[in-house]
Design brief:
The chain is built from 14 helices and no strands.
């Protein structure tokens, strides 16, 4: 919970120190009058000292009050509930693509006997890690537009999920490859080979299980990344969701929305870490023996 508190607090102070007074932004855009702006500033507590604003914000957060949007006047909780399903769908499909793709690339890179296969799979994993999502997203949009001869093709969720899943598969592949290569040099694998267990599926599963804990930990990080890091993908593909809502709220200095989404992302990150620790403990007998 310390991580979530730190993320929420840093977001609170960063927004106020960088974006200034959001009510002044409303006034400059002609969205309110001077009298209405002053009344809104007083009602929201933005005329208080910064530390008092922070205490007021944290008190509301503990009560489950996320506030209202400065621009639309809608409750922040309702806006998040409306945007959450789209982001969960995109993140879930991306993860469903990233895990098998990264696992296959990593296993082939570590297990492949042919040097050409190892180089090809390692290159594919490196490319997935190195290319920004914005770059692969724009390239994929251009390719699909050329193929179906449309300026704005109806892509649904599959193309953005494939782009995001491919980007997330790179770290998975690296983790699986490193874990397998390390395990294949361990004493129990060398002993199994000495007893006549040749390179095949049985030896592969013997080597894979001890390599899983770091992969599971990375899975938690990637899950949190896919949940909270969809802003670029949703923006490139013009999809609704938490990421696009967060970008818009930061550009508009809509503090309540930005703070709520960052806080939700931090809590999700903490939850995935707890689940990952439990899965790693269940997957590796050595961790259970250590306790």
């Amino acid at each position: 919970m310390l991580t979530a508190w730190a993320a929420i607090s840093l977001t609170f102070f960063a927004l106020r120190l960088s974006a200034g007074d959001p009510v002044a932004s409303l006034l400059s855009q002609g969205l309110t009058t001077s009298e209405q702006a002053e009344a809104l500033r007083h009602r929201l507590g933005y005329d208080l000292p910064l530390f008092q604003q922070y205490l007021h914000f944290m008190g509301g957060l503990l009560r489950g009050d996320l506030g209202v949007s400065l621009y639309s006047g809608q409750p922040v909780a309702a806006l998040i509930r409306a945007a959450l399903p789209s982001t969960l769908q995109l993140a879930g499909l991306s993860l469903a693509i990233a895990i098998p793709l990264g696992g296959i690339l990593g296993a082939l890179a570590a297990w492949g006997r042919q040097s050409t296969l190892r180089r090809a799979t390692s290159a594919a994993a490196s490319l997935a890690t190195a290319l920004p999502v914005a770059t692969t997203g724009v390239i994929s949009l251009l390719l699909v537009s050329r193929l179906i001869r449309s300026q704005a093709p109806d892509l649904g969720v599959w193309l953005p999920a494939a782009v995001l899943g491919y980007a997330a598969s790179g770290p998975f592949a690296r983790a699986v490859q490193a874990g397998l290569e390390s395990t294949l040099q361990s004493q129990f694998i060398l002993a199994a080979r000495a007893r006549g267990l040749r390179q095949g599926s049985r030896l592969f599963w013997h080597a894979l299980r001890p390599a899983l804990p770091p992969v599971i930990s990375l899975l938690a990080l990637e899950t949190a990344f896919l949940f909270a890091g969809t802003a670029v993908t949703e923006t490139v593909f013009s999809r609704p969701g938490l990421g696009r809502t967060l970008v818009r709220s930061i550009l508009q200095a809509d503090f309540p929305i930005a703070q709520a989404i960052v806080g939700l992302s931090a809590l999700f990150y903490v939850a995935t870490q707890v689940v990952a620790d439990g899965l790693a403990w269940a997957a590796d007998p050595r961790l259970r023996e250590a306790r």
